[in-house]
């Protein structure tokens, strides 16, 4: 028993804060050891807010995996600022809140193992087309910058095909473009919330599973706006104060979509049944806080997988069997299914 306990404990990660070689005096360096007999270790270095007069690159221990350089007023990122021993092994790098206006083409090129990059809360308006090239990025946060246009081609990486999540929320984006040039863009999650997009951007060709368009000044969604996003599982179009119309067949092609968030769109008053055509996998529809107050009962014919619909304030509807009628011999079971809500008169 004691042996088992000892084994169990030695498998747990533990942290030594002291005695890390080459730890810059303004930083906190921690080694996390794990595995049997601490056979693996990860160095985490926190150099947040070092104050002015700090020169880059800051020396960091060899084999650092996680580095936090946020809030250091770094300004434009030059080729020399992230070079040196220790940098080549980084898996994650936080460069948020640094007044970064520019990322020079080779400033990140040595970070061959970099998976997570946080460039949020900077002053970026553009990126050079090759600045991420060759990096195995899985997560890139570019939120809270000043991009007005964005070219997705910056994420074409010829080395690996890892799926990447991109956060571009809280920018000033009016358009998003991509040209592919025969390459594949493995963007799986894209957050475009709180920008200045006036229509749904054309994202055909991206293997997206998650898309967020919340808080954009989109006034209407056109037929076929999402065609070719056949892998999309989650779509959020919430908090659009100007959205008045969703045309029939707008969601055509979203055959994998499971969750559709249309909440908090106060000017959206009606939805034609055909709006839902093509949503074969949809399980959850959120219309709470929108102007839509009732639902056509025949919408179930377009939503074979729906489980729950939320609307108004706390009105919840779900699919049930019609009570007291069991005309199974007359047709498919589907015909006996109706929408049932916790409030009367919602379903027309
Ligand atoms: C998208 O951005 C919004 C606003 O910053 C945030 O609330 C949401 O969690 C983000 N979603 C993802 C998947 O990053
Ligand atoms: C629907 O959206 C509202 C507002 O965004 C949120 O508070 C609520 O939790 C959502 N409901 C469901 C069932 O997802």
Automatic annotation (TrEMBL):
Give the PROSITE patterns listed for this entry.
Answer: LRR (PS51450)
* Annotated Pfam families: LRR_8 (PF13855)
Q: Which SUPFAM superfamilies match?
A: L domain-like
Which UniProt keywords are present, listed alphabetically? Leucine-rich repeat, Repeat, Signal
Q: Does the keyword NADP apply?
A: no
**Which InterPro entries does this chain map to?**
Dev_Immune_Receptor (IPR050328), Leu-rich_rpt (IPR001611), Leu-rich_rpt_typical-subtyp (IPR003591), LRR_dom_sf (IPR032675)
A single Gene Ontology CC term: extracellular matrix
Isomerase: present as a keyword of the record? no
The residue range of the signal peptide is 1-19
- Supply the source organism for this entry: Labrus bergylta (ballan wrasse)
Question: What Gene3D superfamilies is this protein classified in?
Answer: Ribonuclease Inhibitor
What is the recorded name of this protein?
A: Tsukushi small leucine rich proteoglycan homolog (Xenopus laevis)
- Source organism lineage? Eukaryota, Metazoa, Chordata, Craniata, Vertebrata
């Amino acid at each position: 028993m004691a042996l088992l306990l000892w084994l169990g404990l030695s498998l747990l990660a533990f942290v030594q804060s002291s005695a890390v070689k080459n730890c810059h005096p303004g930083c906190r360096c921690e080694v996390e050891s794990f595995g049997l007999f601490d056979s693996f270790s990860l160095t985490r270095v926190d150099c947040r807010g070092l104050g002015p007069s700090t020169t880059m690159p800051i020396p960091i221990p060899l084999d650092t995996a996680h580095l936090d350089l946020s809030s250091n007023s770094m300004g434009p990122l030059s080729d020399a600022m992230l070079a040196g021993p220790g940098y080549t092994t980084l898996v994650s790098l936080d460069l948020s809140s640094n007044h970064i206006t520019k990322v020079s083409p080779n400033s990140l090129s040595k970070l061959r193992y970099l998976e997570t990059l946080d460039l949020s809360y900077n002053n970026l308006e553009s990126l050079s087309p090759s600045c991420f090239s060759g990096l195995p990025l899985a997560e890139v946060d570019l939120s809270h910058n000043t991009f007005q246009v964005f070219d997705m081609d910056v994420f074409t990486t010829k080395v690996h095909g890892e799926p990447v999540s991109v956060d571009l929320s809280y920018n000033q984006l009016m358009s998003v473009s991509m040209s592919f040039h025969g390459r594949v863009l493995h963007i799986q999650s894209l957050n475009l919330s709180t920008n200045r997009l006036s229509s749904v951007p054309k994202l055909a060709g991206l293997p997206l599973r998650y898309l967020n368009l919340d808080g954009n000044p989109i006034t209407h969604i056109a037929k076929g706006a999402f065609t070719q996003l056949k892998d999309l599982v989650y779509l959020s179009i919430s908090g659009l104060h100007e959205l008045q119309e969703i045309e029939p067949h707008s969601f055509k092609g979203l055959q994998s979509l499971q969750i559709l968030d249309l909440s908090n769109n106060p000017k959206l008053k009606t939805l034609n049944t055909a709006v839902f055509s093509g949503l074969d996998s949809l399980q959850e529809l959120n219309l709470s806080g929108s102007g839509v107050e009732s639902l056509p009962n025949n919408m179930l014919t377009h939503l074979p997988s729906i489980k729950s619909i939320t609307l108004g304030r706390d009105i919840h509807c779900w699919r049930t069997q019609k009570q007291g009628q069991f005309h199974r011999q007359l047709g498919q079971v589907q015909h006996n299914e109706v929408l049932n809500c916790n409030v009367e008169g919602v379903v027309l």
